[in-house]
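Q: For a teaching session next week I want to show students how multiple molecules come together into a single three-dimensional assembly. I've collected the sequence lines for a complex. Could you give me the predicted structure tokens for the whole thing so I can convert them for display?
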Amino acid sequence: MLNRHYQGQICSVARTLEVVGDRWTLLVIRDALRGTRRFDDFQAGLGVARNVLTDRLTRLCEHGLLEKQLYQTRPARHEYVPTRKGLDLWPTIMSLIMWGDRHLAPDGPPLLTRHRGCGGALTPALTCDRCGASLGPADVELLPGPGAGHAQAEDPPA
Amino acid sequence: MLNRHYQGQICSVARTLEVVGDRWTLLVIRDALRGTRRFDDFQAGLGVARNVLTDRLTRLCEHGLLEKQLYQTRPARHEYVPTRKGLDLWPTIMSLIMWGDRHLAPDGPPLLTRHRGCGGALTPALTCDRCGASLGPADVELLPGPGAGHAQAEDPPA
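A: Of course. Below is the structure for the complete assembly, covering every listed component.
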């Protein structure tokens, strides 16, 4: 086990939350991944104040999760298109949905996820890239990686 | 596709974010899933103000993600133990970690996740519970579920 201080300071969860750890930001990304592209459509779908939406869309563009593209010139109109970095949040968003479906939906899931053509459901389980096993907390060990950097030397594993 | 208003109002992402959509809350859960149990250990690991930590731990207990258990009587001391509901956030937390590893770690991941005994890595991919295929946004269709309730009749799919 790495010690607490180290875990707290250098962690991809903490970094990720710096970028997307805000309710509106995640809801904007959710809608972008479902096909919403235009300011007014995000606004209508979320019922969010326009200044808040402007702020979140700007941040998401600055962080490279969305790309602002001109789709009309007179007057100039833009749409917000998810980048690879934005699309890569799809498993995280689905994972949040599945947790909510399991624990916060007493009447059952509001939406069902179905594998197109197969009819199976998405599973929340994560798997091993080598053997394909479904993994849980007890199956995974955390080791210092290349990005541990200086903190590793200054503040070594307990 | 379901229409925007409907998506915005009834969605397990939105509900989930009501419970865990706060940076400190997710970091507290992250540490709890790594074995942190005691107030002072959460506090030391996160460097968070004590009143903020008290608030987040209380909320997590109220929502049933952590359970406050007495481990010493004189003086009374409690620890915070993840419930099934809390443990079920593990794939979400790992998914956040893996996204950060991929997009926010220019020096490589601070921590490596390894399948104990196998050596494989966790993959961010989600799979189909029937055929086992790795699924992406284009492979999944969203259908109204049992929890769609009245909103479905009042505000039907576009």
